[in-house]
Specification:
The complex is a heterodimer of chains A (248) and B (286). Chain A is of the alpha/beta class and 248 residues long. Chain A has a domain at 5-83 and 157-247: P-loop containing nucleotide triphosphate hydrolases (Rossmann fold, 3-Layer(aba) Sandwich), CATH 3.40.50.300. Chain A contains 10 helices and 10 strands. In chain A, a hairpin with a 3-residue loop joins strand 9 (206-210) and strand 10 (214-219). In chain A, helix 4 (112-124) crosses helix 5 (140-153) and helix 9 runs antiparallel to helix 10 (237-247). The longest helix of chain A is centred in the C-terminal third of the chain and has 16 residues, at 170-185. With 286 residues, chain B is an all-alpha fold. Chain B has a domain at 2-201: ABC transporter involved in vitamin B12 uptake, BtuC. Chain B is 85% helix and 0% strand. Chain B is built from 14 helices and no strands. In chain B, helix 3 (41-50) runs parallel beside helix 6 and helix 11 (173-214) crosses helix 13. The longest helix of chain B is centred in the C-terminal third of the chain and has 42 residues, at 173-214. Classes of the chains: A alpha/beta (248), B mainly alpha (286). Chain A binds chain B through residues 51, 53, 69, 72, 75-77, 79, 83-85, 88-91, 94-95, 98, 101-102, 104, 106-109, 134, 160, and chain B through 37, 151-155, 157-158, 160-165, 167-170, 212, 215-218, 220-221. Chain A: Pfam families: ABC_tran. Chain A: Belongs to the ABC transporter superfamily. Chain A: One of its GO terms (molecular function) is ATP hydrolysis activity. Chain A: It comes from Lysinibacillus alkalisoli.
Chain lengths: 248, 286
């Protein structure tokens, strides 16, 4: 567990309202990790707090014994699509090129080799023919693939994706998950905020169930059990029961 | 036209006016691109108005109005940020509250300042009275603003397009915001004599908005915006000279004319092409 992701006693609030409390877990790297929980459970908040994008009231986060600030260059984050201005004057290729910025440092401009690398990342997600399009001209799934390409361009070791499968087509979803699995097979780690419980076991090795606090964290087969799910999805457990019936 | 060129060659005040206007057009165009993409057009309007008490106090104390204006511009930016973050009042409302308060104070102070410079020339500018010191100040401010934007172009681009991504890169979004506020204040001060307090916002946002309709790349948008700013300043000054119109108003109307043309005929976004396409599509379906 030399390269574990360790979260200890994390507390987060918005304007005095507690969103997350007593959050502690240890996850191994080199795994595909899902983060699930009901609406408003604090899934995105957990991801942002771990990344240090929002202030924590208490708690520590370390990856491989180092703080997030120390290893920021090895982390790629794909925010929710809804937060972006789709009319922004930027092409698909230039969006991917942003992924090379952290490695460039201050005052340096991306060179031809960076553009070529960005193009290769676009090819990986099958979006190279759209390279010169404006970002808003793409469909939801295509946009998400472009953002994955940008994360790939960062050449990170740990990928954080916030709700990447919301409002996208089946083909894009399959392509994104296959790329994440390929990354995992190459020793990378991906944490994915996810809401569709049906595919959790196919997609992830490990699972973190959140509902204001940690309901369960660990191997997906040990965590994804009716008890835990009922505890997390109190209001939705009728739905869960029916899903269990359908899958058995 | 040839008379205008002849006069430029003859009269030094006209040379200075033209040179200063062109610089103002360029820096407003460049900075304005970031301002409109970040949804801060109203902030531009606010800061330009709120520098008035600073100008008045500078006259009273007997220092260059540059210092007072910059101080009050920054006070405004921080004041607006403070109110927005510490109350439920929304950003546009706190902008309105803060800048009108400063502007009101400014109007009173200008009356007390007992200066030969009257309110009208500060509010509406008078480019034909540009002195050497003003011209050099504008040039200096322009150089600083352009340099900062060139040096931090990458960081400005990321934090404008996707602040969350910028934060995950470890970029300080807040510092970048206040850096832009400082630049905005500097540009406002540099533009005072050319277009005046009231119309600075037009120089900031109209050429940038015109360029926004014409391209899908930020670097090209900034270039077009700067060119349009400079071109509008030149044409506006010419019109102002020939027809004896106030220079600021003339320059602003030229930027508006460019905007209308782009609004109607922009290859991608122009409403003329759009409605033609829609009509064609509809007839094809019938």
């Amino acid at each position: 567990m030399a390269h574990a992701i360790e979260v200890k006693d994390l507390h987060v609030s918005y304007y005095g309202k507690q969103v997350l409390k007593n959050v502690s877990f240890t996850m191994e790297t080199g795994r595909l990790i899902g983060i699930v929980g009901p609406n408003g459970a604090g899934k995105s908040t957990l991801m942002k707090a771990v990344l240090g994008l929002i202030p924590r009231d208490k708690g520590t986060v370390s990856i491989g014994g180092k703080s997030i600030a120390e290893i920021r260059k090895h982390i790629a984050y794909v925010p929710q699509r809804a937060t972006i201005d789709w009319d922004f004057p930027i092409t698909v290729l230039d969006t991917v090129l942003l992924g090379t910025y952290p490695s460039l440092g201050l005052f340096k401009r991306p060179k031809k080799k960076h553009r070529e690398w960005a193009y290769q990342c676009l090819e990986k997600v099958g979006m190279e023919t759209f390279a010169k399009r404006q970002i808003g001209e793409l469909s939801g799934g295509q946009q998400q693939r472009v953002f994955l390409a940008r994360a790939l361009a960062q050449q990170a070791d740990i990928f954080f994706l916030d709700e990447p499968f919301v409002g996208i087509d089946v083909t894009s979803e399959a392509l994104i998950i296959s790329i994440l699995k390929e990354l995992r097979d190459n020793g990378k780690t991906a944490l994915v905020v996810h809401h569709d419980l049906t595919k959790v076991k196919d997609y992830f090795n490990d699972l973190i169930i959140v509902n204001g606090e940690i309901v369960g964290a660990g191997d997906v087969n040990q965590v994804m059990v009716p008890d835990m799910m009922k505890k997390a999805f109190k209001t939705q457990f009728a739905l869960w029961d029916s899903m269990e019936v359908a899958s058995s | 036209m040839s008379a205008f060129i002849h006069d430029i060659q003859t009269y030094e005040f006209l040379q200075k006016a033209l040179f200063t206007s062109i610089i103002v057009g360029i820096i407003c165009g460049v900075l304005g691109s970031f301002i409109i993409l970040r949804g801060m057009s109203l902030m531009g309007d606010a800061i330009s108005h709120a520098v008035l008490p600073g100008v008045a106090l500078s006259y009273m104390v007997g220092i260059n109005y540059f210092y007072g204006a910059v101080t009050f511009g920054l006070l405004t930016a921080f004041g607006i940020g403070f109110i927005t973050q510490n109350s439920r009042v929304k950003n546009d409302t706190s902008i309105g509250i803060v800048f009108s308060a400063f502007f009101a104070v400014g109007i009173i102070l200008i009356g007390k300042a007992n200066t030969s410079t009257d309110l009208t020339s500060i509010l509406f500018g008078n480019v034909l009275s540009v002195r050497d010191s003003d011209m050099w100040m504008t040039l200096g401010v322009g150089a600083v603003v352009l340099l900062v934007i060139i040096l931090f172009y990458k960081e400005l681009l990321v934090s404008t397009f996707d602040p969350t991504l910028a934060a995950s890169f470890g970029l300080p979004n807040k510092i970048i915001h206040y850096l832009l506020m400082i630049l905005l204040t500097l540009v406002t001060v540099a533009s005072l004599q050319t277009v005046g307090i009231i119309l600075v916002v037009a120089m900031l946002i109209t050429p940038a908005a015109t360029a926004y309709l014409l391209t899908n790349r930020l670097s090209i948008m900034i270039t077009i915006s700067a060119i349009l700013g400079a071109l509008s300043a030149t044409i506006g000054l010419y019109i102002s000279f020939v027809y004896n119109w106030p220079s600021g108003a003339a320059i602003v109307l030229v930027t508006t004319a460019f905007f209308i043309v782009a609004f109607l005929f922009s290859p991608r976004n122009g409403i003329v092409w759009r409605s033609l396409k829609t009509r064609k599509h509809k007839t094809a379906l019938q």
